[in-house]
Request: fold
Amino acid sequence: MTSDHMVDAASHPAQPGIAETAEERVSYLRAGHTLGSWLFTSDHKRIAILYFISVTFFFFVGGAAATLMRADLLTPQADLLSDEGYNRAFTLHGVIMVWFFLIPSIPNTFGNFLVPLMIGARDLAFPRLNLLSWYIYMLGGLFTIYVLIAGGVDTGWTFYTPLSSMFANGNVVLAATAVFIVGFSSILTGLNFIVTIHKLRAPGMTWGRLPLFIWSLYATSLILVLATPILSVTLALIAAERLFGIGVFNPSLGGDPLLYQHLFWFYSHPAVYIMVLPALGVVSELVAAAARKPVFGYQFVAGSSIAIAAIGFLVWGHHMFVAGQSAYASAIFSFLSLAVAVPSGIKVYNWTATLYKGQISLDPPFLFAMSFIGLFVVGGLTGVILAMLAVDVHVHDTYFVVAHFHYIMVGGTVSAYFGALHYWWPKIIGRRYSLAWGRLSAALIFLGFNLTFFPQFLLGYLGMPRRYHVYPPEFQVLHVLSTAGASILGVAYLLPFTYLFYSMRYGKPAGANPWEATGLEWSIPSPPPKHNFAERPTVTRAPYDYTIEYEESDD
Amino acid sequence: MNGFLSLWPDRASAYAAQLDTLLAGFTVVIVLLSAPVFILIVVFAIKYRRGRPANRKHPVTRNVWLEISWSIVPFVLMLCFYVWATKLFFDLHHPPADALEIDVVAKQWMWKFQHPGGQREINELHVPIDQPVRLTMASQDVIHSLYIPALRMKQDVVPGRYTDMWFKAGKPGTYLLTCAEFCGTQHARMGGHLIAMSQADYARWLEASTTDLTLAAQGAELFRSRGCSGCHGPSATVHAPNLAGIYGKPVPLEDGQVVTANDQYIRDSILLPQQQIAAGYPHIMPSFQNVLGEDDVLKLIAYIKSLSDTGEGSPNREGASK
Amino acid sequence: MTERVQVHEPFVDPAQQHAADMLGMYIFLASEIMLFGGLFAVLFVCRLLHPQEIAAASKELHLWIGGINTAILLTSSLAVAIAVQLARQGSRRAVAISLAAAAALGAGFLILKAVEYRLEYSDGLLPGFSTASKFANPATHLFMNIYLIATVLHAVHLSIGILLLAGLVWKLLRRSLQVPKRASVIAVSGLYWHLVDVIWIFLYPALYLIR
Reply:
């Protein structure tokens, strides 16, 4: 198991590697050597590592499903997968990537690790609840793995009724149970973050001095806590419908299949913001550190996170423009969907303005941040195209939608995830990695991603429906391009894990602040000691206060 | 439709051209809105590269008016397109009265079409050009979605309710017709073609397609064979509403509401008779849920509609129940 | 309040810990409200779809049992509120007695609820135990399904509450929970109990009274 390697590498300073540093000897990584000291830890930093390992595992499981799909799509016929096989592959890809990777990815790894460090606390407010949330996540994960072994599920990650409740022949109830369980893990994490951010800030860490990553996690947590229960009850109703035929979603028993879509998207649209808000927070941190300048318009950027979370609860109906809902409702949802683009736009323009007259570094984390901005802009603006009613009638449920949300979720969130990994890796592990390899993988991911997903916009406008593995031959060229891009992307995603893993043993010690960034997390040794801060810090400066350096560098 | 690589989809209607114009216009706007971001990121990254000398005096860290303007201006620009797109969308929801009515029944995994003359076809839909066509769609099982890319149109087909879609094809040709909503194992194979033909060709096609009876006549046949006429017929002894002339008329219900006897109401009355009981009638109608398919129900509706079209029966009947 | 309060790891003082515990519970309860909110939304939509049938179905419920149960739960909340006050004053036995009274009232609610299910069973109106044909129409069946799901989910929450209060009583009697030192534990548990009560206050009209 990967976790064993981790403990192993940590506990035996390698012979040919670079010797253990004094900081490492007292760090959280050495605070216990047994497997039990990891599995029963209540240290937020260790729980972050546990999450990192499990989330990465599911990322590659979901990626394997995507690989199968892309390979099958090379030709217009069904040559690799059967109809059933393809349906099960994309369902697992969706379920795993959404609930077992994207939603927990940044909050549960970097959020867990950084929230106490950034606000000057010893731990999250409820450390044992934090560990419990990881166990709940793993239990949900085990159910998912069981579903995979038992033959999968064939409803799509959206579980639309009455297909899921009456007609599908996969393990719908088990899959719904897995997602139901993992929801509680999200709720506990969100609750823990909100309480921690409210109650455990160090003296002087006012709301106006919070790092923007914390603001975005705060907004994310509000959504986690308020939207996830709706999903839980909806999935419970799906299971009850399938097992007992209660009829809530069954038109022949007086129910309404569209009611399911309303409930599902009431959760799942805000869930999109659960996935992307933490990424926006990461990028704000990275842009400030890259430019060595305060983020332009801190208040607007912080406020826009909250605005996105709030308006995000009111736009769910834009998934249902062709589902048969009232045209007037559609017009309102379309308008609100445009409104939610405004705070996202503010962030992008403000990041660009942050770079003006900065000291811009092109080290790997910052390359990831810049590719994030580019891909997020494309994803966001195509989202606005989708919000236009008449256009959505054409491109809804086509590859245009697939490309759009992959630009946000993969181009956006996954780039930010890798950006965060490259930025805070020296803090988490205490070692430097090869910057050249980091730049190479950032470039490869950007190229591979665009080659994979840009052709899908064209496919969608041409009329290629999603969830098809048999398609008219005139779409083949674009599909081949997309698969070619996907193979680059697959390699590029594996690459960082090799040189980062290598750096654990052979990397040079990072020192407390390798990027010369501001923020409390950089004021303590790398890797951090078990109790984070030797004494409770007192904050006296605004966030991203790089002023002193300006004066020095003026020419 | 054919070819090695196409980068723009076929256009089979004037509406498709309008939509393409909307999209092209909007694309120009979003390129204009996003170009500064792409260009400036690259320019700044080069000009202000760390270690490179540049004028970095007086950096700005906030400017509220600038921020407000880049919130408001793009939003206002987008609102213009919002109005345009919403206008097109509402047109899609208002079919012209003289449209040719074709019924669609979706089931795993095929499309069935019924023309008013009784012609039936599977996975192929023949329509005349320059004539509005209105599809009334029902699903036999799960949610499907009829999607015709060349028309830039799709509409979900939801079990338990009728949805509709109308279009006016402008150019003869054979166009792709697919299911866009995931509907189970053979979803990817649930498709066929829209065949738009000149009105003369369409008339010829209608004649050539074997058909014994019009849709309404097939409905009349069912009305007798399934026993509807036993209660609803002129010689019935049971107290059930006479259906002649009720189509499109208001029906007072037991609970005081008044509904219009449209397709949906008649469908629900046949399949879910214990709801929405017409005032003054006993609750005796059995459900035909497991007896009649959606295509049969559509035939019955065509029949009931024909009773009002031809003026049979008195137009002011007091109402209808199931 | 001279006794030293035990402060757990991330907190610096008891006030901070108490505030965090209370906030945590409030957020959890907000989450619970959204959970039941989903069910209320389902109920609301079904009523809109079938107003007449559901009003008729609602008339079949045993209004008086629901009414008595409402009174019982309200009284139990009063007992919990008194216990929270008493805990701040440090009267250990009195706290234990009023918490035990609240738990007993909760148990009484469950017993009456069981009686009600039994009556519905004999009327042939309990889904899962009665054949579908006994229901006047599908909408009635649907309503009874939602009724059963909502009340069972509420009963599960109430049972957890009863166990929670019983645990507190047990600890108080064994003196392993000290008041007023740990009064905040009782306050936090009390919040949960009030929420279970409040949910019933909304379920009762939504299911029984709108007929």
In short: Chain C touches chain A at residues 9-12, 16, 19-20, 23-24, 27-28, 30-32, 34-39, 41-42, 45-46, 49-50, 53, 127-128, 137-139, 141-142, 145-146, 149 (CB under 8 Å). Chain C is about 80% helix and 0% strand. Chain C has a mean pLDDT of 89.
